[in-house]
Model the fold of this input.
Amino acid sequence: MSRVVRSPWLVVLVVGFLLGAPLWYASCMRTNASLAASPPTLPAVPMQQPPPPQNPATDLTDALLRVGFDAKALAAVGLSANGAAAFVAAFRGAYANQSAAFDAADAAYSAARVSSDALRRRIESGKGSQE
Done:
């Protein structure tokens, strides 16, 4: 007898593999067949809520802050509560009538800010000229 056959562990391992591999393959095929027959259901995903409608008061507050009219600035001018309410009402009317002009000015400011930042970085890096 050969030395390989004398070792019982190797024989047990080979026989186990020869018997186990087809059984494992058959169980995998059975699982795949059952999945094909009835695909798994996905968990219920809640639908995304549409964004809330824009709040005109928030838009007005943002517009006031963008032009620099925060509570401190209005208090520094000396507006009373009634005067501040009248100012905000007047600003609301102007903002409603001129919203396109405000948007254009805001876009122009953003573009100018980008070019200004680029020039500032060039100067700080030492590559800027006298221009």
About this structure: Helices lie at 3-6, 8-37, 56-66, 71-77, 81-97, 99-125. The two ends are 97 Å apart (CA to CA). The mean pLDDT is 74.
